[in-house]
């Protein structure tokens, strides 16, 4: 792309201000900016005007979950199926670690956060330790695919290398980068991070499979005979990864995807809840639940929308392939976005000042034909670290680790 082509691309999308400081840039900065303009997909900004249609849902009805009692009755059978799949190399794990962790407020990738008290205990370390339990039990290493973003790739790969992958076999660790999207103010005017750089951020956790495809990782998946991918968030330090019983149950029920869920602590808890939307699996956000839905009961007399997702899913690879070319909606996420103002000054906002654009993994669930919501015990499997203190924080995660006999 040359300067004239860049001007033409920008004028079509009303973003001419991106070249405001062009003449002040060095030759190399000019080149980088033109390359960035070439690469950036400005169509994501259209989701600002389509805001309402993107969030509109179909008809929501309850979905049945496999609860703890049912799992316990069949535990042996499911574990056997799951362990067999793992030993046959049919299960891979995908760690979503491309997020910015802005609420935690650390400059490093979230996985590098040290939650230790008397010794170092990094989030990545806890995750690998959890995965190693299954490796030891099954006698087989599990391929671990780690999604990073341009913002944290080098620090993540360097850190894990320096720590010798916390004892995991490096032959089974694969990194890939997710896509980026421009960030804008509330009117859709793209922010500039520097005079010669458009502010871009990771484009959400929903693009992981297509990013694997773009990065050539699907070849590894196919070559290794992986049929199931367990996708999980970096920030849950009690995360059970490649859990044999969960894998076995999803296979036995012949579902396209399994979703680990926890019973809600209260009917109005702020979690995404598993449901059916127009008869297909879906996740309804807490603020989309009406009063009637909150109070609705199932045959057992329990709340009908009672199971919240914890970002731990098991996807059938064959079905993921079928949705690869399906478009996913971009969601607008209000964030504090650093930018340079009209006078070329760097502004670090203290309040949200615009949108980042993200595709979300929960939209992938709706593209799947069938889903098994699989109940797990919250105190044993869910210790998310979103904030530095308060709810879902380092403090609450430490308490939960202690409860589970994990030394920190
Ligand atoms: P969150 O939604 O908590 O976002 O991510 P975040 O970026 O980590 O944190 P905040 O909102 O800025 O404070 C849930 C999971 O999805 C991953 C995160 O790394 C985390 O494991 N994620 C999120 C990505 O991999 N890429 C993204 O673009 C966003």
Task: Briefly say what this structure is.
The chain has 15 helices and 19 strands. The chain has helices at 3-12, 27-39, 46-49, 51-55, 68-87, 123-138, 153-162, 208-214, 217-224, 244-252, 291-295, 317-323, 361-367, 378-381, 394-403, and strands spanning 60-61, 91-96, 144-148, 173-177, 180-182, 184-185, 192-194, 197-198, 200-202, 228-233, 257-263, 273-277, 280-284, 307-316, 331-335, 339-340, 346-347, 354-358, 371-375.
Key terms for this structure?
19 strands, 408 residues, alpha+beta, three-stranded antiparallel β-sheet, seven-stranded mixed β-sheet, binds uridine 5'-triphosphate, 15 helices
Shape field? globular
Q: What's the helical proportion of residues?
A: 25-40%
Strand order of the largest sheet: 4-3-2-10-14-11-19
Given the helix and strand composition, which structural class is it?
alpha+beta
Q: Quaternary arrangement of the chains shown? A: single chain
Number of strand segments: 19
Distance between the termini: 53 Å
- Determine the strand fraction and express it as a percent band: 15-25%
What is the C-alpha radius of gyration, as a whole number of Å? 22 Å
Treating each run of at least 4 consecutive H or I residues as one helix, how many helices?
15
Question: How would you characterize the largest beta sheet?
Answer: 7 strands, mixed
Uncertain runs are: none
Hetero groups bound? uridine 5'-triphosphate
User: Roughly what is the average pLDDT, rounded to an integer?
Assistant: 94
């Amino acid at each position: 792309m040359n300067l004239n082509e860049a001007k033409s691309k920008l004028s079509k999308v009303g973003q001419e201000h991106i070249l405001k400081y062009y003449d002040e840039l060095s030759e190399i900065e000019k080149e980088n900016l033109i390359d960035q303009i070439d690469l950036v997909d400005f169509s994501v900004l259209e989701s600002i005007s389509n805001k309402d249609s993107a969030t509109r849902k179909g008809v929501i009805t309850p979905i049945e979950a496999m609860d703890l009692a049912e799992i316990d009755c069949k535990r042996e059978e499911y574990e056997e199926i799951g362990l067999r799949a793992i030993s046959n190399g049919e299960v891979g794990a995908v760690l979503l670690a491309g997020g910015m962790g802005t609420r935690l407020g650390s400059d490093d990738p979230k996985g590098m956060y040290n939650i230790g008290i008397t010794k170092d205990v990094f989030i990545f370390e806890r995750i690998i330790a959890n995965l190693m339990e299954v490796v030891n039990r099954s006698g087989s290493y599990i391929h671990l695919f780690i999604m990073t973003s341009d913002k944290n790739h080098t620090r993540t790969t360097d850190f894990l290398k320096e720590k010798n992958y916390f004892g995991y076999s490096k032959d089974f660790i694969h990194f890939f980068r997710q896509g980026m999207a421009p960030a804008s103010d509330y009117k859709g005017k793209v922010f500039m991070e520097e005079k010669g750089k458009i502010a871009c951020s990771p484009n959400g956790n929903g693009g992981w499979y297509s990013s694997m495809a773009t990065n050539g990782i699907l070849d590894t998946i196919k070559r290794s005979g992986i049929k199931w991918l367990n996708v999980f968030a970096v920030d849950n330090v009690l995360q059970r990864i490649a859990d044999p019983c969960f894998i076995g149950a999803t296979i036995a029920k012949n579902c396209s995807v399994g979703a680990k869920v926890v019973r809600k602590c209260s009917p109005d808890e702020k979690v995404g809840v598993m449901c059916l939307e127009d008869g297909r699996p879906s996740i309804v956000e807490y603020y989309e639940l009406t009063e009637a839905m909150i109070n609705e009961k199932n045959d057992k007399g329990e709340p009908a929308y009672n199971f919240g997702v914890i970002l731990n899913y098991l996807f059938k690879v064959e079905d993921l392939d079928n949705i690869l070319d399906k478009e996913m909606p971009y969601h607008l996420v209000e964030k504090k976005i650093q930018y340079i103002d009209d006078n070329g000054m760097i502004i670090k906002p203290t309040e949200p000042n615009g949108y980042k654009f993200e595709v979300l993994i929960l939209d992938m669930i709706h593209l799947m034909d069938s889903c098994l919501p699989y109940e797990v015990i919250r105190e044993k499997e869910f210790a998310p670290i979103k904030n530095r203190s308060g709810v879902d924080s380092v403090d609450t995660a430490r308490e939960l680790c202690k409860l589970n006999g994990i030394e920190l």
